[in-house]
Amino acid sequence: MNLLIGLIPALGWGIMPLVATKAGGDHINQIMGTTYATFLTAIVIFVSSQPHISWQLLLMGMLSGACWATGQMLQYQLFQKMTVSKAMPISTGLQIIGTALIGVLVFGEWASARMKIIGTLAIVGIIIGMYFTTIRSHQQDSQSNGDLGMLIFTFFISTLGYLGYNVFPQLVGADPWAGFLPQGIGMALMSTIFALFSGRNKQHNYFRDKSTWFNLASGFFFAIAALFYIISARRNGVATGFALTQMSVVLSTIGGILFLHEHKTRKELVFTLIGLALVMAGGITIGVM
């Protein structure tokens, strides 16, 4: 049962970038729609369950949500620069490395030597799989997706945002239901700050864009995934719970190719499928440990 709960976020987060890309708009429109829908869902959860929220949980939850909004906003930006099927594997690999290290070194997960060996091998397999999905054909090797240094920096900051989202609730032993609303508040506030700051620089009102509100659809997929992720992290642990969610890269990568028509040569497609198989094998291994 815990394994199935851990895979539900993968389904929601795998569909989310596909829906956001179809909904249109830039990365600000997308993060606004995503976070506002999450906030609305969090209100419904809070009203129905009425959990107790301490000031510590409120603070950590809001920080967690603000971190996620930052990481996801940058990931949406990467989708537009590199496409979903190219950016997702790289982002996923970085998140797995960071989250696994925090889970093992800070929270003491994978206590036995055997678990550490198996977990490490599984993580290595996942990372190799991620690398395979990024292999390009020779005729595309010289092509650039923009300034490499800026792309690396964007991936790095985005990864830090996701790590903050995962770690802050664990610091106060957050109850899954109680922590959802503070996270939703943090997400909505941070995306509003992004919209106001970016809109002021561009002389543009993001609140009037239809694409902002179309992106509410992607937000509802995220909200379901986020809720089950919180539950999974408590049941499976940070490292295991988060590694399971990265199965979303399988859905989003294949979805990017099939539904967003992101082109791949035959060589790239073969390596992508091999890489995704490694990701699935590694994720399942970690999940059943």
Structure write-up:
Helix 2 (27-49) packs antiparallel against helix 3. This protein is mainly α and 289 residues long. The longest helix is centred in the first third of the chain and has 28 residues, at 55-82. It has helices at residues 2-23, 27-49, 55-82, 84-105, 113-133, 148-171, 176-202, 210-214, 216-236, 238-245, 248-258, 266-288. The protein is globular.
Low-confidence stretches: none
Distance between the termini: 14 Å
Largest sheet, described in full?
none
Backbone structural class:
mainly alpha
Mean pLDDT: 85
Q: What is the count of helical runs?
A: 12
> What is the rounded Rg?
18 Å
**What is the string of helix and strand elements?**
HHHHHHHHHHHH
Strand tally: 0
* Beta-strand content bin: under 5%
Give helix % range: over 70%
Shape: globular
Summarize the structure.
By secondary structure, this protein is an all-alpha fold. It is built from 12 helices and no strands. The radius of gyration is 18 Å and the shape is globular.
